[in-house]
Amino acid sequence: MKQKIVIITSKYLHPFVEKAFEDFKEDCTVTIADYTNFDHITDIYRKYGIIAQNINR
């Protein structure tokens, strides 16, 4: 099964994180999710945590 990685970052750091993963050659799916404020991080975790952990609801 293909691994899934979710990276939660600020909008400012997004391009730097994306650049760092351009040459990432592992057999996995990388998703970069931007947060707008610290309260938003919880929402992102709820949305993408299920995906990254392969939990089906």
Short description:
With 57 residues, this protein is α+β, with helices and mostly antiparallel strands. The chain has helices at residues 14-21, 38-52, and strands spanning 3-10, 28-35.
Description of the molecule:
By secondary structure, the chain is of the alpha+beta class. It has two helices and two strands, in the order E-H-E-H. It has helices at 14-21, 38-52; strands at 3-10, 28-35. It has a two-stranded parallel sheet with strand order 1-2. The radius of gyration is 12 Å and the shape is flat. It starts with a strand and ends in a 5-residue tail after the last helix.
Topology:
Layout: E1 3-10, H1 14-21, E2 28-35, H2 38-52
Parallel strand pairs: 1-2
